[in-house]
Amino acid sequence: MIIISKFKYKNILPIIRYIDNMCFNEYEIYDDDYLLNLIKLCSIYIAIDNIKNTIIGYMIIENKENINYLHSIAILPKYQNQKIGTCLLNYIPHNSILLCVKRTNFIAQKLYINCGFIKKSIIKNYYLISNNEYEDAIIMSKNI
Ligand SMILES: CC(C)(COP(=O)(O)OP(=O)(O)OC[C@H]1O[C@@H](n2cnc3c(N)ncnc32)[C@H](O)[C@@H]1OP(=O)(O)O)[C@@H](O)C(=O)NCCC(=O)NCCS
Questions:
Q1: Ligand 1 centre and the CA of 20: distance in Å?
Q2: In sequence order, what are the residues at sequence separation of 6 or more whose Cβ sits closer than 8 angstroms to the Cβ of residue 89?
Q3: What atom in ligand 1 is closest to the CA of residue 107?
Q4: Residue-range domains of the chain with CATH
């Protein structure tokens, strides 16, 4: 069984690092300082495999001036496509959320559209994807 909960302890960094290494490429991974700062500022929600007693996904949400910003969401590959990302997104109490997603990350976009997000605009060349290549970001929001 999968349980979703708000993470209340400080030592989440290695867990996020582990999940990120499994889910993102080297250009997509936040560095430790940035991640530590996010952990201080944001709410972290986790998905737990209750049988194995392990954290199998997380979501980082920042609430700033009444806007909720989704910084990151990731589910371990073995657990993907089982609606756990959907459960995480639907768990948060805030209704208004803003996020950025890569133009080619169609799976994440599907998740967001399923959860009620709409595409708002595009930021050209927002993400660094290799030494000298960039990719556009799509800004999506829900109830904004
Ligand atoms: C994006 C991500 C968080 C989605 O989480 P998830 O638990 O797999 O998503 P869900 O099971 O709730 O499914 C959401 C939609 O994505 C689709 N999807 C999920 N995994 C898929 C896969 N491997 N192949 C094709 N479609 C997939 C599902 O089909 C679903 O839509 P549908 O049920 O209407 O068909 C997860 O794929 C992930 O961690 N990806 C790597 C990190 C990432 O890209 N994060 C987002 C950064 S903006």
A1: 15
A2: 59, 73, 111, 112, 115
A3: 16
A4: 2-142 (3.40.630.30)
Strands of 2-6's sheet in order across: 2-6, 43-49, 54-64, 67-75, 97-102, 134-142, 118-128
Show the tokens assigned to 22.
């499994």
pTM over 0.90: yes
The rounded distance, in Å, linking the Cα atoms of 40 and 97 is 19
Residues in contact with 95: Cβ distance below 8 Å, sequence separation at least 6, in sequence order: 142, 143
Token pair in block for residue 55: 């954290």
pLDDT in tens, 54-89: 999 999 999 988 889 999 999 999 999 999 999 999
Residues lining ligand 1, Cβ inside 6 A: 23-24, 73-75, 80-86, 101, 105, 107-108, 110-111, 114
Q: How many residues does the chain have?
A: 144
